[in-house]
Design brief:
The chain contains 15 helices and no strands. The protein is elongated, with a radius of gyration of 22 Å. The protein is mostly helical. This is Putative importin subunit beta-4.
């Protein structure tokens, strides 16, 4: 075919893809409207009291979050705006624990796909998420912490004024939280906030507590963010990366030695980078460390 034919074919394929995407988005919105209702219909909210009943919601949520990675930010933003009223109802106190957890997951997973439009929308979602960080349900708390960390990260400057509220909320949760997964997500969220706006974080209060908590116990997906944060803190010369050298190195080696905790190449790269910087800048301190035999051998190989 000639160039014009190829161009027409490409435009046709793009149009078909756009049509399929719009149809899919409409179907997803219909699923959410059916299950949680809209302005005209009450939905099936009161009937959703089992895990099987929420499968359509979880399916819709997974597709929405996946679309946030592939759609252009402006296209995804327009769709997300249309979902906000449904998400508000999903996260309301009248919803079941499973529905609120699903709404929080959709919100957190969607933040990245909003691109430059994240600022305004993250502010809108902030007031919905914060109260749920202290919810009685473990999964709701966990997803609220995750969503809060994501909107703080992608909302950037628009979220800086909320840092004191977020930090105070996390502080309240840490003192009484028993679930490792929730705590892992809190430190992952704090790591995102440090990377985004280090000046907005009281490092003297946050960094020592975070370091002494490591390694993460359950939600190992957060390891990538946490170790990126530690590398960043080392590079900017944070004092606790020196004074707490031993727990940082031990946590790093414990994570690196466990395939469950270090299953992403990116995590391994960040840890090795951090450990090599320690060996380069503080060789004597590194040599004087007392480590278990397996971790000592691993450290020597780096």
């Amino acid at each position: 075919p000639g160039e014009l034919d190829e161009l027409n074919s490409t435009n046709s394929e793009q149009s078909d893809m756009d049509t399929r995407t719009i149809t899919l988005l409409e179907q997803l919105e219909s699923i959410l409207s059916l299950k949680i209702g809209d302005g005209n219909n009450p939905g099936e909210l009161d009937e959703l009291d089992s895990e099987n009943d929420t499968l359509p919601i979880e399916y819709a949520g997974n597709v929405v979050s996946n679309l946030s990675y592939v759609l252009p930010p402006q296209v995804f933003t327009e769709y997300f705006i249309s979902l906000v009223p449904l998400l508000k109802k999903l996260m309301s106190k009248e919803s079941s624990d499973l529905l609120r957890a699903a709404g929080l997951a959709i919100t957190g997973e969607s933040a990245k796909g909003l691109g430059e439009n994240a600022s305004g929308l993250c502010e809108v979602m902030f007031s919905l998420i914060v109260p749920l960080v202290e919810d009685e349900d473990d999964t709701v708390r966990n997803n609220a912490v995750f969503a809060l960390g994501e909107i703080a990260f992608y909302g950037k400057e628009s979220m800086y004024k909320y840092y004191p509220i977020i930090l105070n909320t996390f502080s309240q949760v840490v003192t009484k939280e028993q679930r490792s997964k929730v705590l892992d997500n809190i430190y992952g969220a704090l790591a995102r906030m440090i990377i985004t706006n280090i000046e907005g974080i009281p490092l003297d209060h946050v960094v020592p507590v975070m370091i002494n908590y490591l390694p993460l116990h359950e939600d190992f997906v957060e390891n990538l963010t946490v170790f990126k944060c530690l590398v960043y803190l080392f590079e900017v010369g944070n004092q606790y990366m020196v004074s707490l050298l031993e727990p940082v190195i031990k946590a790093s080696l414990a994570t690196l030695s466990d395939k469950r905790k270090c299953y992403e190449d990116g995590v391994k790269e960040e840890i090795i980078k951090l450990l090599r910087m320690y060996k380069r800048d503080f060789p004597d301190k590194c040599l004087s460390l007392t480590l278990p035999e397996n971790l000592s051998k691993l450290f020597n190989e780096i």
